[in-house]
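ingest -> validate -> predict -> emit
validate: passed (alphabet ok, no gaps, 339 aa)
predict: started
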Amino acid sequence: MRLIWQASVAASLAIALAAATALAEDVDAILRKGNDLRRGGRDREALSEFQRAARINETPRVTAQIALAEQALGLWVAAEAHMTKALAAGTDPWIAKNRPILESALGTVRTHIGTVEIWGTPEGAEVLFDGKPAGRLPSVGPLSLVADEVALQVRAPGHLDLNRTLHVRAGALMREHVELRAQASQPTALSRVVAVVPEVAPSPPTPAATNGGGGQLRQGATPPVARRGPWTITTAGLAGAALVFGVVEHVVWQNKVDSFGSLGCDADLLDRGGESCPQLYDSGRRARTLAFIGYGAAGALAATSMILYLARPSATGPVGSSMACAISRAVHVQCAWRF
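emit:
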């Protein structure tokens, strides 16, 4: 039994050693292919090969090759992270042999990178750089960012969003303090809309408009016509403009939704699927909100225009009539006539 057990252990070790050797050969072959692609100027394809090698066995050498490909493609932040990780493996023979070259490459990468730290209130507010989530207050960072203009957004429920443009300088540390302002409480009711018809004194009939003294219009005379007031026309025009605005934003929203789906993005993920997914998600939500605002404004303005139209002076109606209307939170309109 002891001999059988020893034979089994030896066989297992031999199999494991053979698998490790085959794995190392596969990774080496992928690295050679990636380097050939880089020498041919095909850095994107080379990066894909190095990333494939990392999925098999992420050694410090593989990580360094990924960083070098990212440097060639101008992916400065990712290149810095991978090169720093590779150089941290001080005992790796390949890293020790090529350390001067790798440290020089890291120095070049850092000439394109600055460091940013965000702190402030309220606690839990989400911090985004160029639309990508970076963390939550009270403190985020220090983070490495490309030396350029960066869009900073901080948002939290019940607070006004903060938007700034940061000018990140290479090799410098920037600390930015933010403090979101609380939103004003919502009104309990919408503003009251009152349309009052001013009293107009009746004008005496002219001889040309009467037949004898009976005060009747002559045959063929044109009766006075109530004119639509400027506010009626203005609100009707604004209602049409708001409706067009809502339709345009609705189309934008649907286009963002289609693009979001075609890119394979996922709204349930923290980064929405990476790359441009968060920006599509945020712009789609903004377009949807604007579309609803446009539709709501169109409805409210159309209702106001109708109220003003019904309250216009009548050619034969009573003098001195007025109407007052109020719109409640539930968008119910209540009107009362006064004669």
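Helices lie at 2-39, 43-56, 60-72, 76-87, 93-110, 230-262, 277-310.
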